[in-house]
Design brief:
With 456 residues, the protein is of the alpha/beta class. The protein contains 15 helices and 15 strands. It has helices spanning 70-89, 97-114, 119-141, 145-150, 166-174, 194-200, 215-229, 247-259, 264-267, 290-293, 307-313, 327-342, 360-372, 381-384, 393-402, and strands spanning 6-25, 28-44, 47-56, 181-188, 206-210, 235-239, 270-274, 296-298, 318-321, 348-351, 376-378, 407-410, 413-416, 422-424, 450-451. Strands 4, 5, 6, 7, 8, 9, 10, 11 and 14 form a nine-stranded mixed β-sheet that branches. Helix 5 crosses helix 12 (327-342). The two termini are 33 Å apart.
């Protein structure tokens, strides 16, 4: 049975995260970003529990409007979180964790829309609060994420997804086989040097290659990378980050992948191509015959509970899971893929990473990936940022102590422990949402506490 909770307070704080080298995706280059921390306190059966979550507020990804500055787009994410906080705290009747999310979902999208905040950014605020609430609930139950979600502790149901029934969701949650190890898919950014790829090729077996959307430039870049990686037994994915303008341009890329002898070795190891078109143009283009040559997935276009079925109708076979887009939508999409597979289709969930940082963000996202049963995931935050960056040493040490298999200390820096190209998820099975340190010991000092009395 899924417990009914009463939400008592939500607190936000931030920490600046500098990058050790630039991360370029699409037309955007990021050198630093603020990390949002959320602390939520719930009450169940007269007993209170606090949970936490964290995520980078990455500029110009949730909203790529050219008229907005990078700071403007980060401010939208802050506003999204504040709107969600008011809505969540405004619910007085006890409800399940997912029930609270579902009750606020439409209003969150509407209020954010009225403020000029697009759906992807609107989802961010709710997603972070949902993670903190789930952490609090799991700590209240003294159970781990894998066990808790297998038993549907959050009360996930089909009220937001009429294409699914309750059985499909419950079967998916109960049938999970948790991945004990996740191979790290190393990101090769547009401005990353070939020397960095050369260093990574001996350590990793999976690579994610960023494209710029210019067919000729992408062809040269892919030729260089294919030559460098050689015949090392790797597998790869391509991420267009919304840069291709038409089906014809994308078709030229796909044709080259399978016809150009210099690139063919890479194409034979290609798993899928991610988000080829701008999110708003995704719905204008049917992939047609291209979908029979290679698999395509959506990422930035995944901004609603019906996005995956709509994309499926256009030829897409997959959708990314990112906890910053919503853990419940991720699980619902997993249930869809499982159901469609049983019907004879070839559909899947992929694990992508918007620079999840060591600590709460990467641990909670990795637990979600492991729950899906995925065996590889993009984990790029660990090499664009130096370890825990400017996290206080005491806090970083607490994560190392609580998760000695997930982190290691090298040359005085606590960092992700990648061995034989993979990380282990064993220590993520702790009471709470994949984090051993107490929520009160994680993140900067809180801002003013927001309780139900602060909601207007």
């Amino acid at each position: 049975m899924s417990p009914s909770i009463t939400l008592k307070s939500i607190e936000f704080s931030e920490r600046r995260v500098p990058f050790q080298h630039p991360f370029r995706f699409g037309a955007v280059t990021v050198n630093e970003a603020p990390q949002l921390f959320v602390h939520a306190t719930i009450e169940v059966g007269g007993r209170r529990s606090t949970g936490a979550a964290a995520e980078l507020m990455v500029p110009k990804w949730f909203n790529k409007d050219p008229d907005l500055s990078a700071d403007d787009t980060v401010d939208q994410l802050r506003q999204s979180a504040k709107i969600a906080r008011n809505l969540y705290l405004g619910r007085n009747a006890p409800d399940t964790a997912f029930g609270l999310h579902a009750a606020c979902n439409a209003a969150q999208l509407a209020h954010c829309g009225n403020a000029g905040i697009p759906a992807l950014a609107a989802n961010f605020g709710a997603a972070e609060i949902d993670k903190a609430i789930l952490d609090a609930l799991l700590r209240w139950q003294q159970t781990d994420f894998f066990t808790g979600m297998s038993n549907n502790v959050a009360g996930l149901d089909a009220r937001l997804t009429p294409d699914l029934d309750e059985t499909a969701i419950s079967d998916f949650l109960k049938d999970r086989k948790i991945s004990p190890r996740i191979a790290v898919r190393y990101t090769i950014g547009i401005v990353d040097t070939l020397d960095s790829v050369r260093e990574a090729r001996s350590k990793y077996r999976f690579f994610k290659i960023k494209l710029c959307g210019d067919f000729q430039k992408d062809r040269v870049r892919l030729t260089e990378i294919a030559t460098l990686l050689g015949d090392s037994g790797y597998q790869a994915t391509l991420d267009a980050n919304e840069q291709y303008q038409s089906v014809a341009d994308l078709g030229a890329l796909v044709k080259t992948l399978y016809a150009d002898e210099a690139i063919t070795p890479l194409s034979l190891r290609l798993l899928y191509i991610e988000q080829p078109f701008a999110r708003e143009n995704t719905w204008k283009f049917d992939l047609g015959p291209l979908a029979t040559k290679t698999a395509f997935i959506i990422d930035e276009a995944d901004d609603s509970y019906d996005a995956f079925p709509r994309a499926r109708a256009l030829g897409y076979r997959g959708v990314s899971t990112k906890s910053c887009k919503g853990i419940y939508k991720s699980l619902i999409n997993g249930a869809r893929a499982a159901l469609w597979m049983k019907a004879g289709g070839d559909f899947f969930i992929s694990a992508e990473d918007l620079t999840c940082q060591p600590g709460l963000a990467i641990q909670q996202d990795s637990a979600l990936v492991a729950f899906h049963g995925l065996d590889h995931a993009e984990r790029n935050g660990h090499h664009y940022v130096s370890g825990f960056a400017n996290t206080p040493a005491r806090e970083a040490e607490s994560f190392l102590a609580g998760h000695p298999d997930f982190y290691e200390k090298s040359n005085g820096i606590i960092q992700l422990a990648v061995h034989e190209g993979a990380v282990t998820t064993r220590s993520l099975a702790v009471a709470g949402f994949a984090s051993a340190p107490h929520p009160g010991d994680v993140g900067p000092r809180y801002e003013k506490r927001y309780t139900k009395e602060h909601v207007t």
